[in-house]
Amino acid sequence: MKVVVVEDHLDLRQLFVDALVHEGMDAIAVSCAEELDECMSEGMIHLLILDVNLPGESGFDIAKRVRAADPKINIIMLSARTGELDRIQGYECGADFYLCKPVSPAELAAAVRAVKRRVQDEISRGIDLALSVTGMRLTSEKGVANISKVDVALLKALAMAPDKRLPYWRLYEVTERNSNEQAKSQLELQVFRLRKKLVEIGISENLIRSMRSEGYQLTQAIRIDP
User: Fold this and answer.
1) Which of 50, 74, 149, 171 has the largest count of CB atoms under 10 Å?
2) Is the same domain home to 18 and 110?
3) E strands, the chain, where?
4) What's the rounded Cα separation, in Å, for the pair 170 and 47?
5) Residues 50-68: tens digit of each pLDDT
6) What angle do CA 87, 102, 50 make, to 5 degrees?
7) Where does 33-173 show beta strands of DSSP type E?
8) CA neighbours closer than 13 Å in the CB half-sphere of residue 55
């Protein structure tokens, strides 16, 4: 599960990320709204852990904006503002949990585990996807997309990889590219075009998530058919 912590206090950022990684999460931390927007442009985020008092755009405003853009995202809000009206404002802005500071790593981890159970349940009820290797097509309950041989190779490799994620160098291999800057641009263009085909058959383009400076990951299982 992809988690982003937005916290301007350096020590707290590291403390929270360490606790989340210990729980098996794919967690990173940023310090402000601008850095968060950069992360969100790179792919799906399942959970946002959001401090209220941030430099620039407040946590309340960020939550409201992010929730409007992605109604499915999960938000845990952290704040030293413990009054009833503050908590109500947090929930009205889109928070799923409003935790009052100081928050222990154990309490935060418990809230994150609750969100993870919800995310896994949603994924298990997701659209059934099947990749036909010989037929070179991807099928969902809403339609069929004809894809290229190189698209088949990419999706099959990701679907069979541990955690459904692969680094760039491995994706270059399976798509028969040389490992250079041109190969990266070609791979990014391939993924861009493939995402457009996914949308046409009712699959979110976030099925293929970009991992910054690392590679790509599938956010949902794909059944491999002959």
Assistant:
1) 50
2) yes
3) 2-6, 26-30, 47-51, 74-79, 97-100, 130-132, 137-140, 143-146, 165-167, 208-211, 215-218, 223-225
4) 28
5) 999 998 899 999 999 988 8
6) 55
7) 47-51, 74-79, 97-100, 130-132, 137-140, 143-146, 165-167
8) 7
What pairs with residue 2 in β-bridges? Answer: 26
Which residue range is the domain that position 143 belongs to? Answer: 130-225
CA 13, distance to chain mean position in Å, is 19
What are the pLDDT digits (tens) for 169-184? 999 999 999 877 789 8
- Please state the pTM of the whole predicted model: 0.57
Asked whether the beta carbons of 150 and 173 are under 8 A apart, the reply is: no
Supply 73's token pair. 């995202």
Considering the domain architecture, whether residues 111 and 195 belong to the same structural domain is answered as: no
| Confidence at 126, pLDDT banded by 50, 70, 90 | low
Length of the chain equals 226
Question: Residue 208: which of 173, 176, 161 has the closest Cα?
Answer: 161
User: Among 92, 124, 156, where does a domain finish?
Assistant: 124
DSSP 104: -
Tokens of residue 4, six digits: 């982003």
Q: Are residues 190 and 90 in the same domain?
A: no
